[in-house]
Amino acid sequence: MNAPANLAHQAERIDLAAAFRWTARLNLHESVANHFSLAVNPEGTRFLINPNGRHFARITAASLVEIDAMDPATLARPDAPDPTAWGLHGAIHRALPHARCVMHVHSRAATVLASLADSTLPPIDQNTAMFFRRQVVDEHYGGMAFESEGARCATLLADPKISVMIMGNHGVLVIGRDVAEAFNRLYYFERAADTYIQALQTGRPLRLLPDAIAEKTAREWEDYPGFAENHLRELKAILDAEGADYQA
């Protein structure tokens, strides 16, 4: 399947649409809420985002909306994004050029983690170690992510080393250099959070990795050649084999 020939940013649209479809398949989404965005200009201020009110399972490449974080009239457009998508993703793309792809969900395990008094994800296995010293916890939830709340959240991601914001009392937000990296992190963060929550449920002491080993493992994840790209490629291959219309 190929996207329409006149569609701008075709490859990026296809990757992002595939990520939406697989996120729905994994049940990491919530209703018609939650949003993914992807910067498409060097400054990071123009970005693709899901259309308002569209279920993740129905997102296609052509349905993604391109908006400008610097345009104050965005919410007056006939195809305006959800106001909280504009508030959160607009603020991040406006302030943080390194946050090329932004994925925010209220997935089950991540949201359970975000509801704990201490929402930090400790390094107890190889997957949790991926996020060692690469996460930040927002401890000051202020309501839905309209513009002021979005701007506040964006300040927590200023350090380029941070790839995950555990949004206390809310959910999780993951950033990456492209769709493959961001989606891979989203997938593994949910797996890691689930492992941690289940480990807590045993009531037994946790086996924490030493800081040096956790940091070494996190770097090995970052340097693993082609892993995120291969992950996304295989998911698209499965969707294509099933005849999914995400590329339309």
Structure overview:
The chain has 248 residues and is α+β, with helices and mostly antiparallel strands. It has a single domain (10-241), classed as Class II aldolase/adducin N-terminal domain (L-fuculose-1-phosphate Aldolase, 3-Layer(aba) Sandwich), CATH 3.40.225.10. Helix content is 40%, strand content 13%. The protein has eight helices and seven strands. The protein has helices at 10-25, 83-95, 108-114, 126-129, 147-155, 179-201, 211-223, 227-241, and strands at residues 35-39, 46-49, 65-68, 101-105, 135-138, 164-167, 171-176. The protein has a seven-stranded mixed sheet, sandwiched between helices. The longest helix is centred in the C-terminal third of the chain and has 23 residues, at 179-201. The chain is globular.
